[in-house]
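Thread: quick sanity check before group meeting

JM: Hey all, I'm pulling together slides for Thursday and realized we never actually wrote out the predicted structure for the chain we discussed last week. Dropping the sequence here so it's in one place. If anyone has concerns about the input, flag it before I start.
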Amino acid sequence: MDSLTQIALGAAVGEATLGRKVGNKAILWGAIAGALPDLDIVASPLLDSISRISWHRGYSHSLMFALLFSPILGWLIYKTYKKKEATWRDWSLLGFWAIFTHIVLDCFTNYGTQVFLPFSDYRVACNNIFIIDPLYTVPILICIIVVLFIDRTSRKRRLLNAIGLGLSSFYILLTLIFKFYAGTQFEHSLREQGITYQRYLTNPTPFNSILWRAVAESDEGYWIGYYSLFDRSRQISFQFIERNEELIKPIEDERAVKMLKWFSDGYYVITNHHGLIKFNDLRFGEFAVSEEEAQFPQNFGMSKARNFRYVFTFVLLNGSENDENDISILREGFSLKNRDAVLKQLLQRIGGV
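JM (edit): ok, ran it. Output follows.
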């Protein structure tokens, strides 16, 4: 999730863990601990282009990190204050729960979190909440801000913080229910249209949990469709995109290609753009491209499109930092030139248009 959400969650968890003993100090250190796992990006410039892919949401997002680092953090906080309102163990528990809840929350997004490192590089991704969702963040944020101004011994303070955490947790539960329901609609529509597939994923579109996107994998490519919980019709329009596996057949054993396949969980398409071979991760969405390639209108399944650009695209390049015969990767930047139009389309599709 985004940094603001993780800071707010960490602050609320800190308050729930130790607020009665130390007051706003618990909120401060909970917020700091809640943000710590995402500081893994600081080391990214020191890594090669391939290693960066597995580094983010890697060791700093593992249960092992939470267990090993929280006592160190707890000791540092304990030594910071001359007045010992809380013990080393108290501060360690605060650090653990703030880091642990950060990890758990990230598991609900579609990026993938390597919770079980160093024993397994399996990436947990429930795909039920977008990385920025105001309906999750706002209740926690409002409640924790108000809590700052209430006496630490007040029952109202604990109750208000519990309400914020409770509402946001309930919303997570709702997104799981919505995801299950949307999945049944996608399965029904795929079956009705006679589309055969091996597996599929569903994830929410930006900033909401009403409009869902499905990517169903077949032998040669993927069927992509959108469904809003407010859609009047159960008939979902799917569009087929070829995988184009043959474009990377000669280099399929390269470290870069293997890493990208692992990162994308096997949901990818390969494109050749003016001689550049691009690896496109389908999990993060696609944008329709006009014939002039001047704009990126995201139609959210509102109409058919011939060409797409993808939110996560990696260019495969000949030569690496260590060996000119290796394959390296370059993350292609992405920006929208017509954000207002995209937002309008998103709101329309959320509403079932």
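AS: nice. The mean pLDDT is 92. The longest strand covers residues 276-289.
JM: adding both to the slides.
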